[in-house]
Amino acid sequence: MTEPAKLVLFSCLAWLLMLGRSCSAEASTDRAVERVHAVLVAMAPYSAEPPPGETPEQRAGRLRSPARAAVQATSDPLIRAAVLVQGKHESRYARYVGEGRCSEGPRGSRCDPDRAGKPRAATYWQVWRAACPAAHAVPPGTERDRAAARCTAALLRYFVRECGSLEGAFHALKSGCPHRSKSPAVWAVTRAREARALAGRM
User: Fold this and answer.
1) pTM
2) What is the rounded average pLDDT of the residues 75-80?
């Protein structure tokens, strides 16, 4: 075999190898999305969801966006599970929140409105502009879900390091790391427990 022919052969083999790795990675991501999606679908729908309503099939279709966003946000099973738990407790993955219709929600569930009634938090993860500007820079939809999930994962990783535990990280998302002389709030401990239970399914 001539040298040019060898170069062509090696180039083809390298390309096929790269293609195989790409396909394998994509398949792995798709499997992870399916697992996360199953977790989201199994969560109880928000009981006070304002109209318009949605069928179980419509809800399952809508939840594919946050499922993929959570998978793309981090490869760490525990942090990914924590992202799902944060969304669950912050919004119950309600349709009106995901669609940016917070003002239509029941009183007390309108995305942290200011005195004028304008929502300050956005997305299923209820992130604020100061902490997650990218999630507020795009309209409701897949891109916003992706930005919010990525930001939530980054904040959780950061606070796990700063606060020393996942419990402390959940606590910090609302009010900063708990003082050394105090334990994280009960609700933060509950969220951390749920995340650890979910991590094995990620």
Assistant:
1) 0.86
2) 98
